[in-house]
Structure to design on (277 residues):
């Protein structure tokens, strides 16, 4: 589904408060060390989003399993996107069982957050979003953790909030739960515009990765991020596999449907070699 690039109504956000924040996690290179080699890797992913997926404004970052680096990738992608002048970026924590975005960024209090926003109809998005005092980034923490967030993620209120986010921000980056062990991301994937998959070399089991890939709609996939690969290849941070709307898929540049399938098969073979030896 494509969304028209209509003019956005942008309510004023609450001013940033320094006392709400402590020091951010040192691994957030795109925010803390934007001139580093690591930050450049995330700018490659940013370039892929801006060039090939500009209409995909609500982007979910997920993985097959917990611990593959999806939260680090989500925060760094949001940080890279926020470096563009006059761009409004929202980073939202949708991993409601084990939220960590706010903590990684140094947010002192995680509530109120998304959970409160969904459950309390008197709250508005602008009441809950926090503006970071140091970075050009707005953050929506998860709020209190939920052991079973399934019903909350099915709420029509969440769909309404997603639509408001699309109108208010240039890009919204969502840190979402892993795809395989819980059903949460499967609910979220139906409502987002784009998906980024994070996998870890020598760690993510092939069968679980293939299970996760099978659950993703190919037309929504923006790219696959490889973490801790001993033999990185050019462009591996931003390999794109996405649809052109009529069932043909392509990677970088225009390719025929058969070429795209061959490229995808080759990528899966690389994944198999890296992960299972």
């Amino acid at each position: 589904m494509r969304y028209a690039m209509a003019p956005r109504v942008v309510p004023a956000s609450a001013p940033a408060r320094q006392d709400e924040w402590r020091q951010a996690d040192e691994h957030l290179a795109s925010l803390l060390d934007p001139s580093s080699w690591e930050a450049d890797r995330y700018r490659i992913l940013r370039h892929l989003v801006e060039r090939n997926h500009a209409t995909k404004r609500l982007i979910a970052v997920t993985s097959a399993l917990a611990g593959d680096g999806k939260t680090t990738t989500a925060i760094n992608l949001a940080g890279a996107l926020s470096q563009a002048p006059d761009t409004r970026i929202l980073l939202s924590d949708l991993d409601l069982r084990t939220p960590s975005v706010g903590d990684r960024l140094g947010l002192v209090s995680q509530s109120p957050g998304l959970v409160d926003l969904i459950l309390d109809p008197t709250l508005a998005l602008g009441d809950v979003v926090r503006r970071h005092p140091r970075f050009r980034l707005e953050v929506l923490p998860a709020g209190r953790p939920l052991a079973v967030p399934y019903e909350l993620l099915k709420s029509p209120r969440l769909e309404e909030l997603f639509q408001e986010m699309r109108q208010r921000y240039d890009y919204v980056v969502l840190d979402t739960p892993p795809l395989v062990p819980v059903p949460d991301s499967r609910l979220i994937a139906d409502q987002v515009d784009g998906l980024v998959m994070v996998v870890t070399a020598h760690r993510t089991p092939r069968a679980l990765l293939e299970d996760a890939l099978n659950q993703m709609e190919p037309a929504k996939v923006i790219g696959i991020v490889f973490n801790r690969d001993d033999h990185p290849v050019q462009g591996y941070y931003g390999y794109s596999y996405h649809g052109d709307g009529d069932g043909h898929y392509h990677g970088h540049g225009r390719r025929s449907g058969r070429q795209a399938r061959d490229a995808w098969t080759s990528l899966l073979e690389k994944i198999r070699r890296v992960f299972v030896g």
In short: The chain has eleven helices and nine strands. Residues 1-12, 231-256 have pLDDT under 50 and may be disordered. The first strand starts at residue 58 and ends at 63.
